[in-house]
Amino acid sequence: xxxxxxxxxxxxxxxGDRLGASLMDGMxxxxxxxxxxxxxxxxxxxxxxxxxxAMEELSIMGLVEVLPRLHDLFKRRDEVxxxxxxIQPDALVTIDSPGFTLRVAKAARKQCKAPFIHYVAPSxxxxxxxxxxxxxxxIDHVLxxxxxxxxxxxAAGMSCDFVGHPVAAEPVASAQDCAALxxxxxxxxxxxxxxxxxxxxxxxxxxxxxxxxxxxxxxxGKIAQLRVVVPAAQxxxxxxxxxxxxxxxxxxxxxxxxxxxxxxQKRALFATSDVALAASGTVSLExxxxxxxxxxxxxxxxxxxxxxxxxxxxxxxTLVNLLSDSRAVPEFxxxxxxxxxxxxxxxxxxxxxxxxxxQRAAGQAAMRxxxxxxxxxxxxxxxxxxxxxxx
Length: 391
Description:
By secondary structure, this protein is of the alpha/beta class. It has two domains: about 5-165 and about 375-390, Rossmann fold (3-Layer(aba) Sandwich); about 175-370, Glycogen Phosphorylase B (Rossmann fold). The chain is about 45% helix and about 15% strand. The strands form two sheets. The chain has a six-stranded parallel beta sheet, with helices on both faces. A six-stranded parallel beta sheet has the order 9-8-7-10-11-12, with helices on both faces. Helix 1 (about 15-30) packs across helix 16 (about 375-390), helix 7 crosses helix 10 and helix 8 crosses helix 14. The radius of gyration is 21 Å and the shape is globular. The model has no long low-confidence stretch (mean pLDDT about 90).
């Protein structure tokens, strides 16, 4: 009996884990005997994936923040390259996290002739446009999430497929799911619910949670029945979040051990929220899918923030704004990410129905742009990968 194709996957953070899981589902639908090896998180592991090491070791964001970990990251890079060369898979699919995954691809390229596919294009439209040309030296094909990205990849010499974003195909929590969650958390129907999302990486939580906690305090001083829920993206983040929000009455929601149940709970929380305060990233699309008005805040090490500002090519980093060609979602980055800026923006969304509805409309436009209503992005990505390895 002939074995199915062997695909080496590398995901380096929570958003990549979700993409990897969606891709795995799509590939198994098309090729049930497909096999997977590499690095992934809990969602990929829930599908029978054995990670070479804990994906969380790679979840570092920022130019300056990476420096203390360079030695360990280089060791892990060499370990992964050796594993790829030993296995000689039918395809290598690197998923986002370009600081690590593309270095692996570059190092493995000369001794592995399989197609190298990168899933999630670097944001060359936002900063450092030369990255696409460098990537083309060792990446054959790119799967992109955003409809305006293919021309950038093709101009650099790579073939490219727009596959859409898995958020567009995720189920929506029912009214019963939302009511059950509110009941579990003892949040009355009359209460306003603020969900706070300070990131999935420890560094993000360390920087943002104290700012977001102070923001919650300012809002609770103005809205008597405001309840605050902070879902922890990982179990190891529960204690840091509890410490950061110790002076508030926020509910710190630990992750459920079953990853699919955790995702379902998160969707219910989003759908029943009146407003959200979130770190910049994929979560803005998840909130938009649930129809939740939001404010985005982000903070990095001062030097990293300064460098990012110098290289920026766009005036917004929030995907909902970019995809809807609007600036409906307020964002406060780097030195502007303060409780004094965040709290009034959230208060406006809670008190001004027109502002909240404008955001919801922008969110709906963003969902359509990333493929909502069409073929599931994971299946589209799976077809693209199999198309590269099937004669």
